[in-house]
Glutamine synthetase/guanido kinase (Rhizoclosmatium globosum), 708 residues
Amino acid sequence: MKTALPKPVYARFCKQVQGHQQLDRGVADAVAHAVRIWAQDKGATHFTHWFQPQTGTTAEKHDSFLTLKSQIINGQEEIYAIDAFSGGQLLQSEPDASSFPNGGVRSTFEARGYTIWDPISPMFVRRGPHGTAVLYIPSVFISYNGEALDEKTVLLRSSEVLSSAAVKLLQTLGDYETKRVTTTLGCEQEFFLIDRGIYNLRPDLKITGRTLIGVPPPKHQQLEDHYFGAIPSRVLACIAEAEYELARIGVPVKTRHNEVAPNQFEVAPIFEEASIAVDHNLVTMEVLHQVAHRHKLKVLFHEKPFKGVNGSGKHANWSMQTDGGDNLLDPTATPETNYRFLLFLVAILDAVYKHGGLLRSSIASSSNEHRLGANEAPPAIVSAFLGEHLSEILDAIEEQRPSRDFHARADSSVVLDSTKPKAQGTTLDLNISTMPPIARDLTDRNRTSPFAFTGNKFEYRAVGSKQSPSFPVVLLNAAVSKSLECVTEALEQIKGDKDVPSEEDMLAVIRQFVTASKKIRFEGNGYSDEWVQEAEARGLPNIRSCPEAFKQLISPSSLELLIGQGILSSSEVHSRYHIQLEKYAKDLIIEGSTLAGLIKKRVLPAAFTYRKELAESINSQAVCGVEAVPEIKILKKLTADCISLQDANDKLEALVEKIDGMHGDEQGVAAGTELTVALEEVRSYSDAIEAHVGDKYWPLPKYTELLF
């Protein structure tokens, strides 16, 4: 923009965007003209308002730059074609609003909706097949009456609210230079890559995103040899090409590596402002999908595509940054006296403690439900991890005592064994003369915590791999904003007439919030049964099912939080509740129908063919006077399993039909309580049959082919 626009127009654009004012039509027209020239120089023939409906993915409708004009020449009208793009076309478009999830906000006949350019997020050109290219305009999506029908609108609102609350707290502390605080985000994207030819032979994977049946192979991830191993050459070629495509549109991918499970991988970006980070995460998923297709691979973003091995998450690394570039969650070298950091820290802990149920609702889905609480993901109990050093500082403030010397304490706890590294201050001595001193972080990391402090940010580990990170960040921003307001009010009251609060004032407020939110802090193993019992004793909610989690969104405290801050209206909150519940039920109904068909058309016919051959083998051996003991044993077991599978599958079909005819809460609860059990029962019998039927009879690629 700076290069393409006239200097006065560029200055007006920056002033309007940075001041969060409405763009005037003159600026919009100038930007539209410049971006058309820029895009066409890159081969673009079309433009699209690229938006994020509540489907977990993105949407786009392509319009060409072609415009027909007419003029009168010698008394006759002549039509000619030109390329044009106006400020009005840049600012606004009109897709159908009735065909996207709306939770009852729009009726089928009420089709009008609007996409509106988000000037904060950069436009970009994506190249397609045969030299085609399209100008992408990041946009918000609203209904005819102004309700948010997308993920971005509410994210931008929550960022505004958080900025306002954070700036007020900074002003109370005497910082009048900071005018804006942004949330920063970095999404570590996990996924599986499998051969597309094998994928095409699995109807369950194609339709539902996960394997509904299948026995884990003897070797999968037990040896822990895949994690951070050498990236397979075919995969490396795919990811490298995706990184190149992403670099061309300004998405800064920083890291790539093997994950824990076979054929599981991760890419991670450089952190950015939250709304741009969400845009970049969604486009990263799209590019990975397209590039994988060119390499005859299939990318799986489902949180649990394979039973028995680790699933995938999207660890959302979240922090706050001033317009001067200061990270407000940087503890610095002396966090015990960094009172600004401690005040923001205790506000976040207060938010997680008060609104843990609401945060749990943001990561609830039928697919993530398979992952949460297993030995690869944080449990359904929301807690926060700080690490030994910060916990000691907060404990010392609460108990009104000096903080113990963390480094000395850490050093004295090390066993005096020359073969083990010794912690000495902030370095590690490996007792190897050629090795330099190793820098040591102030705290270890806890991968079992849903919300863990990791040095200068919080890692929200419970977010699912295929979901948009937008709504989890919205609810986190909302909760933190309210707690920042509470911290500011407490400081204002205690400081009285003083210009800024004293050290004693700040410590008193920190102590107040540390004490109030102490139950949310947990430093141990979040996967253990002991933590479940301890969390119950602390009074922390353990929200296991999705329908129960969704209800947290419309609880009185959540409605007060979201509506009171203007992040969501009452109709928008309730619409999201209905969308989440309906999608959950539909996902399970689709899985039930898919599995029932798979059993009837693939599994049972294969088992019956094998039974027939066993029976024929037994009869032929009987003619020869030979006892077919092994075959008889297998046949009896197989027959019993087939009977059980057929009965369970009949029940599943009837249950799917019954639940499909339900509506609202009743449907969601029935799907979560009855359908999930029926799916697992059918799978157990099918997997038992798979374990006995010969490979040549089995009609589907097995886990061995899928994972290796």
